[in-house]
Amino acid sequence: MKRKNSSIKLALLPCTFALVAISPVAAQTADQPTEKTIGNYVVTQSVELGVRDTDKSGSSGMYDTFVNLQTGPRLFEQTFSLIAPEHDGALFDDLYISSFGWGGDPNNVARARASKAKLYDFTALFRRDQNYFDYNLLSNPLNPLSLVPAADQAPNSPHAFYNVRRMTDLALTLLPQSAISVRLGYSHLRTDGPSFSSNESSNTPLLFQEISTFTNNYQIGVDFKVLPKTTISYDQFLQWYRGDTSDSLSQTPFLTSNGLPVDIGNAWGPDGATAACFNAAGQVIVAPGCYVYQAYNRFNPYKTHTPTEQLSLQSQAIKHVDLSGRFNYSASTLQSPYFDLFQGFTRGNVVEQIENGTAGTGKRISDTADFGVTIHITDRTRFLYSFRFLNWRMPSSLDFATLTWTGTGALPTPPSSTGTPPSSTSSVAYSNFLGNNMQFHQFELEQDFTRAFGGRIGFRYKTSAIREQGLQLDLLTGAVSGIVGQPTPTANTIDIHEDTGIVGLWYRPSQKLRASADAEFGTADNFQYRIEPRRQLQYRARVNYKPERWAILSASGNFLEQRNGVSEIAFNGHNRNAGFSSTFLPSDKFNFELAYNYNNYQSNSFVCFQDSTVPLPPGSFPSTGICALGNPLLVPFLGGSPLNAETYGVFANRVHFVDAAVIWTPVRQVSANLGYGIVSSNGQTSPFDPIAPSGSLRSNYHRPLAGVQVEVAKNWFAKVAWNFFDYHEAPAAFSGPDIYTSPRDFHANVTTVSLKYAF
């Protein structure tokens, strides 16, 4: 699942660039507000109003997932500023207010800044993000060909959501230039909206999930600048989080033979009871033996309270020595009751099941410390030392009770409501502990060989001590066992030691040319996860060149190679990224920009998975129990059953990004721009499901744009802009026909017309 999600993230990356490109026309110097003087203040203002028209075809859900710019009137932009050049304002010396996106855009932002010299600095920020997601390959069952009806059963994403996040951030600094200053802060994050989800069962029903979460953060801090060249800060943070998300059965579109409305779910496996829901023509026939859902409810609210204390230091009081340090302590508590109700008929002849749980204790205690020192041995020689300490512990306990009723099929009346005693009862108490003690030391020596050339060499040493303890107690029988199915109480330990060599060079012969390169070579004697490397090589390089006043060129590369040579894993991965950007401004009338980036990601290793009746990937073989590798944290369990097959899993993805733009200003009153961007992805993965399409792994996303701005009168600017969005997925060589989900391709013409007044 992690690899499929990685491909989706790569496909959604273009959304970031698309949002940058949707501005009607890049702001030019000609449309800057005109300064006016009112009293002691210099005043500037601007407002841009207009309308957007969107003409789209193809997958509406995918367009809303990637772009989500809809038709309607908009306030594209607004600014207002007051500045007192002599710092003689009454309540403030500087005031700035700006906003954009109001009227229906998915992203709305409002900012405000106010300050009074030596008295206060205040900032306020409000953001509203409307997040629509309907990528129908995310956790979509993709049923086997032999059991799925010809009609689409899950054309949209079973995990689609349409959420709104509202974020508020307030910060106030009192006496910012005094020896003692006070900082106050508050932030609020709330997420609400409908979504869909599913649970792990034989037929994976579609659930309606009402998301409701919020977080409140409070901060108070004091800065002491009473010592020369030294700042000591103390901060207290308080965080409250609450999640009231709930799940319920989304639909009951079918009827049983006795007239009960039910849902047969989104997926059907090889089990005869699920296959019995379809006749030879693939039509739904809810026979008595079908697995069905009559009702389902799940409610698992979370409440956490996290106070944090922090002490930090910045000092240059000692000659030739720079010091910095920070210590942080936090302890969070968790309350998390759990309720789960099922009614219907499913595996094990279960017709009703009620589960209740209560988190008796849930805590996370964290100590972190950072310390850094730079010693200037000579004007050209420096010694740097960094230390980092992290120790977090998570003790927790849970009581869990399950009541189960069995039968031969779904019942009109739930047996719990008739007083029928449950067929089986279980009551289990869990106690777990997970913690990590990490220490990090880095030593570096920097040398300026000449004014234009220098280098550094260093060494990093890191240790991690991971501890896991757990047991489960059967409250009915008194039996004690370990976690994840182990027969005895669990006490697992992993110690990891990492050594890394560091080397780097830099070259700056003039202000026109700057270049740097560095490399890190690391090894580890152990690992925690299957794709965690025991050998790692990373090397980076960057060049900035300004041959003329009107030309700026830059190029960079970042290459990461990772290996884990344990024979049962054979992990081989890399992430190679390289690109360049260029800007040319030969005159005030012409501006050209061109950028290119290439990213090559690969992650190959042996993968353990549960066998099924679908054809296994080539080279698969039954598991011989080597997936655990002797590592107690890698016990091969999934859903309580041992994994019984493995293969050498392959995941690779290559992404090209190109962006070009031209801005032409033939006269001061007229400006035009033309641009084009494309993100092209070409990847592959092991075909665990022979009918699974490539999806975002093989896709192209085109984004051309054009716009014109004209000063129609003094301080009045008319703008017209056009954006085109085209997303297309190419079928993979191993894929069958993509007929079990709705197509994901789309294209859209987005036109904006606006009028800006800068005054």
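The record above closes out task 2.4. Task 2.5 opens with a second protein, given below.
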Amino acid sequence: MSDVAASPLRDHTASVVSRLHALRRQIAAWFWVEGLSRVLWTALAVFTIDLGIDWFFRMDVPQRAVMLLIMVGTIAAVAWRRLMRPLSVRLSDDALALQVEDRNKLLGQGMISALQLSRIEDHAQRGMSPALVRQTVISGAQAAQSVDFGRVLDQREFRLNATILAGAALLLLVGAVGVARSQPLAIWFNRNLLLGDKVWPQKTYLVVKRAENGRVKFPRGEDWTQVVEVTPDSQVVPEIVFIDFRRTRARNSQAMKKSGERQFEAVFSNVIEPFEFRARGGDAFTPWIRVELVEQPAVDELHLEITPPKYTGEGRQQLEPGKGPYFVLQGTSLALSGKANKPLVRAELVMEGKPMPLDLKTEAKEFSGSVSPQQLIAGQYVIELEDTEGLTSRRPTTFGLRLRADREPRVRAKLVGVSGMVVPQARVPLECRVTDDYAVTNVEVSYVWRDEMTQQPNQGTVELPAAKDGLGKRELGLSDVVELAPLKLPTGTSLNFHIAASDNDDITGPNVGKSSDFLLRIVSEEELRTDLLRREKEQRQELERLLKQQEDLLTDCQALQAGLTNAALASEQKDQLMQYQRRQKVIGTNVGAIAERLAGIVTEVLNNRLEDPSGRLEKRLKEDIIQPLSEIAELAVPDAVQNLDRTRRQAAEVAPRNEALATTVTRQKEIADAMREILKHMVKAEGYQEAVNLLYEIQKTQQDVYDRTVKEKQERIKGIIEGRGEKPE
């Protein structure tokens, strides 16, 4: 057979190569078994060590995290060294063939030679004999057929490693079941592999209140009371619980104060830096809690708006923040709105201990609410806020409201042209001014008089027509007259009355304001005339006294005039002129007062209807007495005072000074003469008035006699008709 027809040499070594590949897979399996057994036992060892350490030392989360990294690193290192690195080495066919020949000495180097020569294709070009090469390959392949390649591996060690691996896997399986069913293993798995917060079985369990995910939030710069509770499932409640600190400049630990059967608390003052703490007591240790500082909810903006009662006619009014307490009327409504510095979950307006929820708006930062007139009370209002972190306002925003009363109308009134005595048919003129904060709705006269016989009070009101045009305004002035005749007041009684005004307060009112009380005594016409005559005499006596003062002043001025020289006035003389000037002014003022009082008597006569208007009494008093007195007070006396002042001011100028003083003396003589003339008329008027009063008394007496005669006549006629006859004398 020629070489051309011969089969390729690779076909003769294909079975050897296939068996070598199978050996390579056996070696990989051997490495997997050995490596996994080492890795699993390493894992079991480090898990056991970690469990023991955590059991005895109760590691916190960072410590457990470090231990987890150590365990993972140790297992990874063993896996790399015992599994990954051996498996990563690629064993060639030649290396495997040499290992097989090393364990089978009978092969010599025939198998390796056959493998290597079968890969060469150009034997002749290399100077090799093709027949010899073929024979070598065939003989080497045939020799390998009788050899067991598996003898290269140590089967005994493989079985040992497999047993070790099975034992480790069984233990891991038991551990997995224990994690699911056994509390210690489950706790360890949660704490050390999942880095959870489960704790080992113990007699005491502590809970840090308000802590979430290992964090608790404190208000920045404020005092904070931290509470730690012993859970109900704890067997032992420790007598004392400590707070341990880290990452802080303060002390390392402090004892907590027991505030309840299972509760302890510690006060952190003015916290301005974050730190970490944990609680420990009995056999319990809480995880380390990180303190995060947050701002407390507070009001950044506040708007207060009130709406007064409708009757005031006033619209909405803004209240300036920080200017309270605010005084508002009863029946006012309040609307408030504001903005907080952070999102809120709750906003309340607390009114004297009663909370009212406020509406939250955009991003839960804005709030608003309203207080109806029925809800509005006087007192302190507090805005309480709660943010999304459960913090509340430590210094809540407050404002105060005070309810002010709608003042009653202010009434000022006076009587014009009457004194304290009036006759039953008199008219009482009055002037009145009423002011109110909002509007006057009614003005009237309220009166009361008591019957002297029955002592029963009689009271009522009298309308004032002049007030109608001013009603509905805040201020009105009026002049009106009260007629006494319709009241049918008997003489000898006293009439007490005042002006009453009502406002438009429809909430707590109407409010009624009153003027001062006026008291009038109801007298007969005779008694009033007698009183007027007495008062007129008093004014005449007063004028006589003033005349005496005027004559004395005239005498003093004449004496000063006689003592003047061509020299300038001395200081004493200037002082005398000043005194004369003041005396003259006083006389003029008093004369004017007499004129006013007499004019009042005339008005009183008219108001009491003692005489018709423009009657003899009015004409006599006005023309002969009142008008001349007014001219003295308003013209003559001021002229005399002015000349006295000129005399004093021109003390060094002889001619003008003497002329002014002479004019003064002349004017003072005229004043004295006029006062004497007026006195004559006053004396004459008094006599006339006395005669009138006497005639009035005679007329009244005659009328009384006539009335009694008529009454007696009627009585006798009645007796005759009834058969009684005349009474025996």
